[in-house]
Amino acid sequence: MHYNLINSVVLIAHMLVAITLLGAVTHQTVSLWWPAKGGDASVARSYRAVRTNLYTNVIVVLFIVTVVFGSFLYPQYRISILPYLTQLHIRYFGGFFELKEHFAAIGLGLLPLYWFLWKTVPLTENVRARAVITALIAIFVWYNLLVGHMLNNLKGVGL
Amino acid sequence: MNLTRLIPVFSLTFIAAYQVDDFLNAPLIRYYPDAARWSFGQIKGLHNTIGWFGWMLAGLLAAIVVTAIFALIPQRITERIRWNWVWIVPVMTVLFALYIVVVGWWIT
């Protein structure tokens, strides 16, 4: 009971940090790939008219915190959720999760490179590399949040 | 000495080594959630194994070693390297990860 309560708290914290990360990385990616150029002061334009490199350190910290929370929950997933999916003959959801763990690890490994491209290289250089690495991290975050949410809907790890 | 020049090498080696170690299913450490035990090898009788931490540890160690070797190369040589192509490695790694999952036992 006590352990389940801890899992519930960590799961909620994991989700809240992931949602914050999702907002930050989406903002940065959209602004980078579709920058605002003059024109009207619409909501869409305002959304894109931000200083993209300001988000970098926040994204790095949020990504690490999200992965740390996720690592704590992983064993419980293997004990209670994966066997449940197998029992229901929907084991392929385990494949969705396996890709989630790979994306988390690859994303974690890419963070130094992501930081390097945003913080040490002039923004006029290595434009394609910066754009693709940022988009990859955004894809990882979106995929991982959606799969995590879906699995939690199937069977949570908490109470 | 400019240490930031080592960052791309560290990142690229980490992700490549992680994915290769996953493909080989040779994690450096394993966690057995049912028994709440860590082990460097297989524990007989325990089948529910988490290799993810061990794959990441393998990636980390490989990255440290390769980065240390790269650091021995004089900076006047390494500063000629342009990192425009650097995005190709993570894209290939992601495709490799997709391949591993798709051909894995999840769809059987």
Task: Explain what the structure shows.
The complex is a heterodimer of chains A (159) and B (108). Chain A has 159 residues and is mainly alpha-helical. Chain A is 79% helix and 0% strand. Chain A has one domain (2-157). The longest helix of chain A is centred in the N-terminal third of the chain and has 32 residues, at 2-33. By secondary structure, chain B is mainly alpha-helical. Chain B has one domain (3-103). Chain B contains 4 helices and 2 strands, in the order H-E-E-H-H-H. Chain B has helices at residues 7-24, 52-72, 75-78, 88-102; strands at 30-32, 37-39. The longest helix of chain B is centred in the middle third of the chain and has 21 residues, at 52-72. Chain B starts with 6 loop residues before the first helix and ends in a 6-residue tail after the last helix. The relative contact order of chain B is 0.19. The chains are: A mainly alpha (159), B mainly alpha (108).
Task: Lay out the secondary structure.
The complex is a heterodimer of chains A (159) and B (108).
Chain A: H1 2-33, H2 43-48, H3 56-87, H4 92-119, H5 127-154
Helix pairs in contact in A: 1-3, 1-5, 3-4, 4-5
Chain B: H1 7-24, E1 30-32, E2 37-39, H2 52-72, H3 75-78, H4 88-102
Antiparallel strand pairs in B: 1-2
Low-confidence stretches of chain B: none
Number of strands of chain A: 0
Separate helix tally of chain B: 4
How many domains make up the 3D coordinates of chain A?
Answer: 1
Q: What does the largest sheet of chain A look like?
A: none
Q: Looking at the structure, what is the overall shape of chain B?
A: elongated
Q: Would you tell me the structural class of the helices and strands of chain B?
A: mainly alpha
Oligomer: heterodimer
Give the N-to-C terminal Cα separation of chain B: 52 Å
Query: Helix/strand/pairing class of chain A, anyone?
Result: mainly alpha
Model regions low in confidence, pLDDT < 50 over at least 5 residues of chain A: none
Separation of the first and last Cα atoms of chain A: 7 Å
Which radius of gyration of chain B do the C-alpha atoms yield? 17 Å
What is the percentage of strand-forming residues of chain B? Answer: 5-15%
Counting DSSP E segments of at least 2 residues, the number of strands of chain B comes to: 2
